[in-house]
Amino acid sequence: MESKFYRTWHLAKSDMEYKITEFEWSLIRFFETFSRWVLANGMVTITADVDLKYQEHFILHVIRMQDRPKNSSTIARLMNRDDIPNIQYSLRKLETAGLIEKQRENNSKTFAYNASELGVKLTDEYYKVRHELLLKRLEDINDVEEKFEKGARFMSLLTGIYEEAARDCATITPVVAEPPKKVSKKRPE
């Protein structure tokens, strides 16, 4: 039996809405499992004396991307985030752990960050574990490279659509629910 016949969604009143809702639900589950994977691999490879969260692992890899320094604004843009104070907090944790190094940008008050020697070593270890435990499993999927390429393009397209829809939401006046009426309980006399 198809799942749409036994799973009721308050967000789905048509076949298209059902399929979109199922896709969003799968994204939520994928994000959670991807986060667990990043943290599990990080625990194996990044054994610096610091408790890194998922976002900090990923910020370290973004800094390492293309092996050139990045400032907090560039990191935010690459990760599609707008919470720069949280990114800066993560950068301080990574710097304290010795995984990144801070350098002043040319004639500027801002700083850019590089992966330190330790950060490079540990992200290389992350790559090795990723290759051994994950990529070898993915090779068993038929046409996996093409599927990932198409999937990445599809996700990029959806990112733009959801981003635009989020901007549209910002222009809508929220509906304020009326508080429930108090029921007076009279005591019997």
Characterization of this structure:
The structure is a single chain. The chain is mostly helical. It is built from six helices and three strands, in the order H-H-E-H-H-E-E-H-H. The protein has a three-stranded antiparallel beta sheet with strand order 1-3-2. Strand 2 and strand 3 form a beta hairpin.
Name its key features.
189 residues, mainly alpha, Arc Repressor Mutant, subunit A, three-stranded antiparallel β-sheet, 6 helices, 3 strands, 59% helix, 6% strand, extended, HTH_MarR-typ, WH-like_DNA-bd_sf, Winged helix DNA-binding protein
Give a brief description:
The protein is mainly alpha-helical and 189 residues long.
Give me the secondary-structure topology.
Elements: H1 15-45, H2 54-64, E1 70-71, H3 72-79, H4 84-96, E2 100-104, E3 111-115, H5 117-138, H6 144-169
Antiparallel strand pairs: 1-3, 2-3
Helix pairs in contact: 1-5, 2-4, 3-4
Domain HTH marR-type: 45-146
Pfam family, one: HTH_27
Protein name: Winged helix DNA-binding protein
- Give the oligomer, counting copies of the same chain as homo and different chains as hetero: single chain
Cα end-to-end separation: 60 Å
Question: What kind of sheet is the major sheet?
Answer: 3 strands, antiparallel
Helix content: 55-70%
